[in-house]
Amino acid sequence: MRVLFVSSEVFPYSKTGGLGDVVGSLPGALARLGHELLVISPWYATLVGEPVWAGDAEFPGGEEERAGVGILEAGGVRQAFVGLDDFRRESIYGYADDVRRFCRFCRAVPQVAQLLGFRPDIVHVHDWHSAYLPALLRFGDGSPEGFRATPTVLTIHNAQYQGVSQPAEALSWLGLPAEVASDHILLNGDANALRAGIGLATKITTVSPTYAREILTPEYGYGLEAVLQERKDDLRGILNGIDTATWDPAVDPHLPQPYSLADASGKRQAKVALCERAGLDPARPLIGVVSRLAEQKGIDLLLQAAESLKAQGWSIFVLGTGDPQLEQRTRELRSQGVLAAELAFDEGLAHLVYAAADVLAIPSRFEPCGLSQMVAMRYGTLPLARATGGLRDTIVHGRTGFLFEEPDPAELVEAAAEAMRCHGSSDWARMMLEAMAQDFSWDRSAESYVDLYRRIGSDDD
Ligand code: NHF
């Protein structure tokens, strides 16, 4: 099958979070199963890599509407990058006109695929940034021949971010007629990209079975629960995998000494290296945090619990950037000696923390899938996590990690106390081995996506 992926992020070219990781590794797994993949993403000023110029794609919407297209090929997957002046900025997101920027990107996508001679059997879009594509393919007047009827899949990586704007503006950015808004785009008076994708994609997936159930409720649906309920029969949770070649302690170049299930002594070396760097005592058990510093991730809960965790005997090391208030609180606790932290986005240091920590804290309020717990387990680091979304689906309490139910610092502290009692015992060693032996590769999930694509193709679902 020919599958077109469309995403705002693709690792290693662009990434702010797990979306980039997933779109960076799932297409390769699909290609290994024999499918033909093209991934289209924006050509940011900050892009990592040097695409080869492939020409200009003209797309509907006025004289000036043309995009420069660059291509690269890696791991059996073709990558196309859409060059628009909108993407020549310092950051990927965070601008008042983000919805307009990604509407324009979506409008260019069919023409970019056409320029490259790629006629997809399936268009697979990810999160709100590309969620207007099903509407554009169906109702837009500029899709190249054959694109209009192409089946679409929308994967929701995070239902909280929806791409909201004024309805009249969205219609003009997309070049769509007004009746499309009332039927498919409006939610509570606003134009909502994710709502449009949910209503119009042929199938919808999200990144874990538990999150697929959770988003049907007001607590996790962020206002989309009713639309999702309507499409319940077309919604499926498929667990993410991780790139097991990148995340492999046996060959990880960021570690002082590689290690594996057979000989985990390099894990100790990693801990010594991190503790030296951070001024921590390597004899104490270590809780690591590698996360966006955001309310979603429950970082506020961790910071509230930090003193009690320290009193239990833990050291804490936090790596991440994000919400200025959470960054400030982290700095305060660091200056009080409660924890160590680096407020940075540092891929190499993240590898070291995954290896060095005894426990990785993931106290998320919601977690569509979560990748860090899978990485942690592969590195023999036991997750200490809130039982939600993909965390619930991938961690077995008392066997491969420690789970707590409510997003409450007291519950986090209690679960950490259980982990502390277990630490150093033969149970701990057994848990580490079981965690390291888990298979979080993409192979199984990639097959689930192929199964979904096939069902759409054969119309028997
Ligand atoms: O793993 C990739 C990621 C998820 O839980 C994560 C999230 C955003 O919040 O699917 O997307």
Blueprint of the fold:
Elements: E1 2-6, H1 18-32, E2 36-42, E3 52-58, E4 66-74, E5 77-83, H2 98-115, E6 122-126, H3 133-139, E7 152-156, E8 164-165, H4 167-174, H5 178-185, E9 186-187, E10 190-192, H6 193-200, E11 203-206, H7 209-214, H8 218-221, H9 225-230, E12 235-237, H10 265-278, E13 286-290, H11 299-312, E14 315-319, H12 324-335, E15 340-342, H13 347-356, E16 359-362, H14 372-378, E17 382-386, H15 389-394, E18 402-404, H16 409-422, H17 426-436, H18 443-458
Parallel strand pairs: 1-2, 1-6, 2-5, 6-7, 7-11, 11-12, 13-14, 13-16, 14-15, 16-17, 17-18
Antiparallel strand pairs: 3-4, 4-5, 8-10, 9-10
Bound molecules: 1,5-anhydro-D-fructose.
Summarize the structure.
This protein is of the alpha/beta class. The chain contains 18 helices and 18 strands.
User: Major sheet: order of its strands?
Assistant: 3-4-5-2-1-6-7-11-12
SSE class: alpha/beta
- How would you describe the shape? globular
**Averaged pLDDT, please?**
96
Bound molecules: 1,5-anhydro-D-fructose
Number of helices: 18
Radius of gyration: 22 Å
Q: What is the percent of helical residues?
A: 25-40%
State which percent range the strand residues make up: 15-25%
Q: What distance lies between the first and last C-alpha atoms, to the nearest angstrom?
A: 18 Å
Largest sheet: 9 strands, mixed
Which regions are unreliable across 5 or more consecutive residues at pLDDT < 50? none
Number of strands: 18
